[in-house]
Amino acid sequence: DNLDDKKLSKSELNTAVGSVLNYFNLTLVYQPKEKALKSLLAFGKSLSRREKYNLARKCFSRILREKSFHFETTVFEHMWTYISKGEYKEALAEVETKYLKQIGQPSNNSKLYFWLGFMHFKEGNEKKAKKIFKDLISKNPLSYYATLSSKVLSEDKDADTKGVYLANIDNINSRSIANKHIEIDRIKRISLWNRVNNNKFFKAELD
Question: What is the pLDDT of residue 170?
Answer without folding.
Answer: 55
